[in-house]
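Researcher: Excuse me, tokens okay?
***
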Amino acid sequence: MTIRVIIVDDQAMVRAGFAALLAAQSDIDVVGEAPDGRQAVDVSRGTHPDVVLMDVRMPEMDGLEAARRILDPPPGVTHRPKVLMLTTFDVDDYVYEALRAGASGFLLKDAPPADLISAVRIVAAGEALLAPSVTRRLIADFARQRPAPRKNFAARRSGLTPRETEVLELIARGLSNQEIAESLVLAEQTVKTHIGRVLAKLGLRDRAQAVIFAYESGLVTPGH
């Protein structure tokens, strides 16, 4: 199946470079581009992409607001693509909010070409793209600044089994499925099953939101 992608960046050269790279892949089709967030929303609703590559800082409307509108559309709009944020380290706060809004992850704009191609495929397959070391630092930095866990988070977490809670904690600490399996002495497929149940019980879209939830519910605290 071909992955439909739109590229959103205010720099024409960046859009052209990414488009050329992705279009050269047999399983990826670039179906649209946009120079700002406002046009990105329109292009997304017109082309129904599987993945939106979204820059953070743009004129008219930034990538964060555009991601919110694409991922939480008005009544009557049913298409919800995956959103992959393109970022640099100096806008970590935007990325944090983007993950909370439902973005499937983020990729540094200076990442190697192979990483961009891989990222599009990973996100299109329904997985979150979270570099463990960067994710731990990013989420911890901003979780540290947030208020105490809200009661409704704790109540939602109480519906998890002890094993599911363990799995959620390890996700939040940045472990891959294979690493979680090794840590808990489980088959990797069993870990995937547990993750699916955690997401379903908590009403979360993907692994990215699971990381956010683990911090905001107090299951994992920064620096521990």
